[in-house]
Amino acid sequence: MGGNNSSLWPYVAAATDSIVHTSNQLGWVEFDVTADVQAMLDGDESNYGWIIRKDQEGQNGRVLYATGDGAANAPELILSAD
Question: Which domain range does residue 29 map to?
Answer without folding.
Answer: 24-53+63-82
